[in-house]
Design brief:
The chain contains twelve helices and 15 strands. It is α/β, with parallel strands linked by helices.
Amino acid sequence: MRFLPHTESDRQAMLTRIGATQMSDLFEDIPEQLRISPQSLDLPGALSEAAIVRKFTQAAERNRHALNTRCFLGGGTYHHFIPSVVDYIISRGEFLTAYTPYQPEISQGTLQTLFEFQTMVARLTGMEVSNASMYDAATSVAEAALMAKRVTRKNRVILANGVHPKYCEVTTNYLSHLEGSCVRLPQSGYATDLAQTIAAIDENTACVIVQYPDFYGTVYDLAQLRIACDTHKCLMVVAFADVSAFALIDPPGHYGADIAVGSGQALGIPMGFGGPHLGLFTCKQKYLRQMPGRVCGLTHDVNGQRGFVLTLSTREQHIRREKATSNICSNQGLMCTAAATYLTLMGDAGLETVAKHSAAALQSLIDQLPSHVTAASGPHYNETVITFSDQHTRDQFLSRAHAANIFAGIALETIDSSAERAEASLLIATTEMIEPDDISALVQLLEACQ
């Protein structure tokens, strides 16, 4: 109670006023089996402030920063270079402390930043409109499923086998208490099974959600899926984990995606132990009013002066109330600013250079793999699955890589327990931060483990 101003008598007076005798009375509507008592948590005793600072400082010193390691981690969070200007811009007070721009006349800077962010994201994904961000890729995918149900008035959602398992879990959770079904297609190898996905579509399908490049880094042609979605009058939703891919390969809009959603973490946002992230959400113009979140627009006042406004903001805090499409709030505005700054600095040529380097580094690694390690077949962008002869060999490699200060990849079963032969596989990614000597160091460790 150190930072709370109320005394015990104050609290008792408030409880008496509302007809309660003790604090636990306030939680009577929560079922007993769902309550957690402090005693059951088995928490350690209280520490002094100095002891707490020392404890967390010691823990922090055990962390190894990605800048000082060779980082081959992916799976939805990627180690890209971030120009120092990005951190400088988002640390400025007018951006760092900016809140929801309810009053456009005093929020023109924030609104213009969001407008420019929307424009750049729409261009990068090849889509017609973008909102002003979501929380992360997983919630973006879930919101896309909800939006598809609103648009089509159908209740069946299909998740292809190549969609990130965590995106699938969040989406399934979102839809679990709503009418209809959410079908997650079974895993069949380390690539999206497009034939399986198309075969699963029926007349009750609201949307088909695929990932491109998929969770395993595979790049494939979405043209046949577009035809199947048109045949069954359902929406094609394309998810993505590393949006930088679309500086090199055809974006979702090229294939006629109705909705394209995913992560903007690659655009100037550090790995940060999993957060914060940035969710991107784009769609066709005709579905704009069903899109969740906020949309900033450009207009002119009575004097002809250019101005920026919140064109659409169908949030529960505003006029929509229970009919709101989402409750996405302004905490991601700072991440939008970081992404917009990054995209402005990099430009088309810079993004293309990042994408080419990322893809070339993966191909170089695959070309140098020793015979006892195989990579998944087919075209990939900057991520793939490599498989060892057995789990012991893989775990030996991971242990040696850790000792050599190399983040060598993600044990696939930690993310996707359904993946075949997951216990002997690694999901491995490359970005522009990977140099030839990094690949050589990794290959040498692979050769030593057989």
